[in-house]
Structures are given as structure tokens and as C-alpha cells.
């Protein structure tokens, strides 16, 4: 199980980063961690995106951080509303930041930094609207096998 690698302290760091990022945006961030990725990492991330119902946000502004720890696979995936407006290098910059920490087995720090980077862009393009904005998706980390 990925929970063997991600400690409760790691979970708290990741959760805090999600909550911090989402305080300033209507965007929604999820993290999914599993040990193995069957097939292409982007295809698997797209499957998980759908399984977590991330495409159902009102503004189509969900972001998924997908990690297959033992297979050393990572993808960050944004919904249509985000992809239409973020800079071209947006996902690559986040991926480089996260992977640089993963290489030292600092999974939680890498994820937290990437989540905060995503939050900055989401804040710019999908600012928090205290009138009726609600947390549409769970902040909890989802775990696979």
C-alpha cells in the first residue's frame, strides 16, 4: 500500500497545502497515490480524474496530482476550464518542481510545492468567491493499490 511510504505527517503536509491553495481560489485540487501505474501515466491519471468525479466542478477547474510511487510515475492533470487559460509551460513547471523532490524521496514536500504552484495560477484565473463558493471536492488524499 502507498500508505507504507506516505506517513501521517506527510499526509498532513499535503492536506495543508491543498487547503492553503484552495483558500484563495474556486479551483479544486486532489491527490491520488498508488503503487503501480498500468499503462500510460496520463491515461491512468485521466481514469482517476473521472473516478474521483473531478470533471463535475462548476467551472471545470479541477487539478489532479497523480503519483504511482513504486513505478516512479507522476502526472498533473487539469480540467478543460484550466487548460484553456493557463500558460503553456504551466504543467511542465509544476512537474519539474515535484519530480526534483521525488528524486530525493521527498514526496510530501514535492507534492506540497506543486500544489502551492497550482494554487497560485488557480488564484489568478479562478479567484475565490466568498459568495456561494463551496468546496466541491474532498481535500482528502485518495489511495489506490
Automatic annotation (TrEMBL):
Where is the TPM domain positioned along the sequence? 4-120
Q: Which Pfam families match?
A: TPM_phosphatase
What Gene3D superfamilies would the database entry show?
3.10.310.50
Q: Which InterPro entries match?
A: TPM_dom
Instruction: Name the domain of life.
Output: Bacteria
Q: Which PANTHER family match?
A: BLL7265 PROTEIN, UPF0603 PROTEIN YGCG
Protein name stated in the entry: TPM domain-containing protein
